[in-house]
Design goal:
Elements: H1 25-40, E1 45-47, E2 57-60, E3 72-83, E4 86-92, E5 95-104, E6 107-113, E7 119-125, H2 128-139, H3 151-177
Antiparallel strand pairs: 1-2, 2-3, 3-6, 4-5, 6-7
The chain binds nickel (II) ion (NI).
Length: 178
């Protein structure tokens, strides 16, 4: 099922998400829905809070850039290593049609659980996956890539997002009246 993606500013995107405690069919369904929603929106990563579900679950698919990788589901992920720095032009499905340079670590290691509750470690160096991991995990603690920008830039983007949401609301209202 494809979910609506929350657009910043939205208070739910600023919440700290809760750890997953049950590795059950509902969790598998959530991961399936997140992949479906992410692919429909042509994104490479999505965190559960972006669809209004405040759980520590992230999906990432950077296989178009890194052929040797597979799509990843990370449950209760924690970054255990960060090294170096790189600048990468990032976007976010919750901040549509915006892209800005953000400084992140080059090398990251993440410890997480899979859908069956098995712990694993993912380590990557200088890839889109490294950027995506840092970006998506930030969502679980209420962070967004715009937090890395100057307040001037963030303010401009915020105004564009508010206008975008008003336009969407008007569109939905007029569709309801037909
Ligand atoms: Ni994002």
């Amino acid at each position: 099922m494809i979910h609506d993606i929350l657009i910043w500013p939205d208070p739910r995107l600023r919440e700290v998400s809760q750890p997953v405690t049950a590795f059950d069919a509902d969790l598998k369904k959530l991961a399936d829905d997140m992949f479906e929603t992410m692919y429909a929106a042509k994104g490479v990563g999505l965190a559960a809070p972006q669809i209004g579900i405040l759980k520590r679950v992230v999906v990432i698919d950077t296989t178009s850039q890194d052929q040797d990788l597979t799509p990843q589901v990370l449950v209760n992920p924690v970054i255990t290593l960060k090294e170096g720095s790189q600048i990468f032009k990032e976007g976010c499905l919750s901040v549509p049609d915006e892209a800005e340079n953000v400084e992140r670590a080059v090398k990251v290691a993440v410890r997480a659980f899979d859908l069956s509750g098995k712990e694993f470690t993912l380590e990557t160096d200088g890839t889109l996956l490294a950027v995506a991991l840092q970006h998506e995990l930030e969502h679980l603690d209420g962070g967004l890539f715009v937090d890395h920008l100057s307040s001037l830039k963030r303010g401009l983007i915020k105004r564009r997002m508010v206008r975008l949401k008003e336009a969407k609301r008007r569109e939905a209202n007029s569709a309801n009246k037909e």
